Known about the structure:
The chain is an alpha+beta fold. It has helices at 27-40, 133-146, 157-162, 164-171; strands spanning 5-6, 45-47, 57-61, 76-97, 107-120, 126-132, 181-182. It has a five-stranded antiparallel β-sheet with strand order 2-3-4-5-6, sandwiched between helices. The protein binds nickel (II) ion. Residues 99-101, 141, 145 line the site of nickel (II) ion.
Amino acid sequence: MILPIYTLGQPVLRKVAEDIPTDYPNLKELIADMFETMYKSEGVGLAAPQIGKAIRVVVITLDCLAEDFPEYKDFNAAYINPHIVEVDDSETETMEEGCLSLPGIHEPVRRPKRIRVQWLDEELQPHDEWVEGYLARVMQHEFDHLEGKVFTDRISPLRRQLIKRKMQALLHGQFSCSYKVKMPR
Ligand code: NI
């Protein structure tokens, strides 16, 4: 089922999301719906707060990048209760980001290149891994959603000033996009 995507101004996007118990009701269905919603809206990641749930569940697909990054062929993964437990900030990188919850806004964001992450996969198997490259970028963006943060919180004050009007319009539901959304009211 395709779910509406909550856009900035919806309070759930500013909440710290909670870990879920492994017997969380209809978890498989929720994850399947999140994948379907992400594919439909052509995102590379979707966090549960973006569909109105303040819980720590994220889906990521990098298959669309396989032409440039062959290692991401067929990469589709769900992350349950993910936590960044260590950050290697010796190297950072600036890349342009966008977000399904902030349609029309794209800004460069500086982030560390390597992070250590703990999570459960879809089969509820635990992982504890250092992650780098494009996946580390997308994970940091998605896991920010679980902390009540969005990528524009991480841009420079100057850039933030420059997109102030756009952000105001977004907060007032004055935008259009090609997928189903739940705007702030
Ligand atoms: Ni996002």
